[in-house]
Amino acid sequence: MAEIALNPDAPAQDKVAYHFQEAPEGTIIDIADFNLWYGKSQAIFDVNLKIQKGLVTALIGPSGCGKSTLLRSLNRMNDLIDGLKIAGRVTIDGEDIYRSGVDVIALRKRMGMVFQKPNPFPKSIFENVIYPLRVDGVTDRTYLEEACERALQGAALWKEVKDRLHENALGLSGGQQQRLCIARAICAEPEVLLMDEPCSALDPIATSKIEELIDSLKGHYSIVIVTHSMQQAARVSHNTAFMYLGRLVEYGHTEAVFTAPHNQRTLDYVTGRFG
Amino acid sequence: MSGEYIPHVVTAYENELRGLEEGVSKLGEAAARQIENAVSALVTGDVTDAQRIIAQDKNLDALVAEAEGACIRILALRQPHADDLRLTVSTIKACSEVERAGDYAKNIAKRIETIASLRPVGPMRDIPYLMELAVGNLRKAVGAFVTRDPGLAGEVWKNDAALDAAYTAIFRDILTYMAEDSQSVTACTHLLFIAKNLERVGDRATNIAEHAYYLATGRQFEGERPKSDLTSSAVPAALDGAEE
Questions:
Q1: Which of the residues A143, A165, B35, B197 could staple to A126 if both were Cys, CB 3.0 to 4.6 A apart?
Q2: What residues form DSSP beta bridges with A30?
Q3: Contact criterion met (CB below 8 Å) for B205 and B138
Q4: Check: complex ipTM more than 0.85
Q5: Residues of chain B neighbouring A230 (CB-CB closer than 8 A)
Q6: How far apart are CA B24 and CA B139, in angstroms?
Q7: How far apart are CA A206 and CA A59, in angstroms?
Q8: % of chain B residues with pLDDT over 70
């Protein structure tokens, strides 16, 4: 991995500060000259961002800065919004995801998503976890049971629920429900996990468990996490991207972003001096 | 990084951080005064003053503890980031440097009674000069810290060479005195320790300058510090000549 670059000379205000650490396996998602409009209003301006394979990337920025929009653009969750227009390119492993003829369902399988509020289906824990496989038409019971255990182990929930796999998932606590959703996401064996504020509805203990989980998932998955908690971004991520008013301001090594950011706006934001 | 300073949204936090800077500034000045007073008491042989300086070291220690406590509170309660984090951590480090500089003043003061009871010796005349260099650097380093001036910090770093050179000269001078007049050995030995203490004040100032540089830029000083402390190989001037 690249060495930490701390505060090089003369950071230009109008230029994006790049000092991210590169993964040995390189870039998995390459966002190039990306622009996005909701009708007439532009939400994302000229974003260039290389998400690194196997690393955790945090997207931070004030509300309305475009970080969730950007996250949702990665698995085309924004497609259904009326008047949505995009320009630029997003590629995963070199494949353009906005090319015509892309199988969006297949794309979303490669990119598991976890939302702010846990959203288990009103089904058993077991059925929740293996839902992606059911959609694929898998019926082999043994295979499903193994996949369920593997996913729950991966989401650090197995020990807590192994004796009640057939109880309703809505009976789990909020933190357990969120880990269940992560288990469901990883059951489809995605390459990327997109997390949109996965801890904002959870108490500190449940938050720690999710953070521990993120730590154990890195390497196997490339994780992109949108978070309002800068402490969380600092704790869990390798690289941090700071967005402001729809633009990328800084994309760098997390340690440097939180100790010596290269851009004045990043500094003002991470220190809590936002005007 | 330049740009207009924007205060923190949380005013109490902003005030706490500014309080750290004020604390370092106050501490630095208190330590500088202690050292100045110790040397002037040494020159005048004022034993009462010396006692007062020794007693005052406790106040300095209490101020240091207070400033360090404020830093720990900020770390625990505010989770500072970026330059705020650098300020908090660098303040803790700078405080312990200042505290040590204060200890040297006390150490000098402790020797005053003994020296005052002995016959005056020549090298005493150079001690105030050494003190001025050391205290000047200490004040500059604290100034660089509070104003976040990396240029000034670099100046302190370079200036330490002049202090080292002055110390080496006094060291040789004292050795020569002792070699020539065995009656002066007791006073000269005490002066030697005092000179060493002042030279150490300069080292503390250099360390504070390093913290100031890091605070201002997020980077460590690069390269080797210029050094002119050659006392490890110094011999008295008379013997020096005799050897050739």
A1: A165
A2: A50, A91
A3: yes
A4: no
A5: 81
A6: 11
A7: 21
A8: 93
Structure tokens at A205: 């203990």
- The dihedral built from the CA positions of residue B23, B28, B31 and B37, taken in this order, carries a sign that is negative
> Contacts of residue B1 in chain A, CB cutoff 8 Å?
7, 11, 262, 264, 267
CA-nearest of A42, A82, A44, A61 to A225 is A61
Contacts of B219 in chain A (CB under 8 A): 6-7, 260
> What's the pLDDT tens digit per position in B43-71?
999 999 999 999 999 999 999 999 999 99
Contacting A residues, span 242-261, partner chain B, CB-CB under 8 Å: 258-261
Whole-number Å distance between alpha carbons of B111 and B102? 15
| Among chain A residues, CA nearest to B220 | A6
Residues in A closer than 8 angstroms to B85, CB to CB, are 258-259
What is the number of alpha carbons within 13 Å of residue B148 lying toward its C-beta?
Answer: 17
Check CB contact under 8 Å for B1 and A6: no
In this complex, is the C-beta atom of A273 within 8 Å of any C-beta atom belonging to chain B? yes
Q: How many CB pairs under 8 A join A and B?
A: 55
Query: In the block, which residue shows the tokens 């050494």?
Result: B130
Which of B2, B5, B6 is best to mutate for the A interface (most A CBs within 10 A)? B6
Q: How far apart are CA A196 and CA A193, in angstroms?
A: 10
Write out the DSSP string of chain A. Answer: -PPPP---S---TTS-EEEPPPPTT-EEEEEEEEEEEETTEEEEEEEEEEEETTSEEEEE-STTSSHHHHHHHHTTGGGGSTTEEEEEEEEETTEETTSTT--HHHHHHHEEEE-SS----SSBHHHHHTHHHHHTT---HHHHHHHHHHHHHHTT-HHHHGGGTTSBGGGS-HHHHHHHHHHHHHHT--SEEEEESTTTTS-HHHHHHHHHHHHHHBTTBEEEEE-S-HHHHHHH-SEEEEEETTEEEEEEEHHHHHHS-SSHHHHHHHTT---
pLDDT digits (tens, 9 = 90+) for B143-154: 999 999 999 999
